[in-house]
Amino acid sequence: MTWEEILLSIKNLPYGRNSNRTDFSLVVAEKKGTCSSKHAYLKDFADKNSILNVKLVIGIYKMNESNTKIGTILSENKMEYIPEAHCYLKIDGVRFDCTSSNSDFDKIKNDLLEEIEIEPYQVGDFKIEYHQNFIKNWLSENNSGISFEQIWKIREQCIENLSL
């Protein structure tokens, strides 16, 4: 299989959380994955096979009902968006989103707030802490009347809707 074929085969696997978020080899075993597990698997594969110029990235973007298929949960809660941490690859500087067969980075590129490069092992606890800290700072800066716990619960419902 070529690198391009591997990218496409992972992209075509269904979206879904794996039984262990830190074992990204489960993407192949369980035939599914999230943005984190799929892209960590691909970055690890690239590293082990000397495929150059592949970077694993966390991008925080304004997740809303038009750029992400999350249903109407945000409008029901009178929210425009929630900052969401999304993993993807940068290959030779070009962003690739292999989260699902219909993933298209162009849907979120104008809503991108920040990006950082990470290593595959960081898709677990590091990504969660980074994302939660971003949301806490965002809530504080925007003098929001909603608590972190409330927004995280709404976010979890959004993610659950992605699996439907």
TrEMBL record:
Listed name of the protein? FHA domain-containing protein
* Lineage of producing organism: Bacteria, Pseudomonadati, Bacteroidota, Flavobacteriia, Flavobacteriales
Which InterPro entries does the annotation name?
FHA_dom
Task: List each copy of the FHA domain by range.
Answer: 13-79
PROSITE patterns linked to this entry: FHA_DOMAIN
| Organism per entry | Flavobacterium soyangense
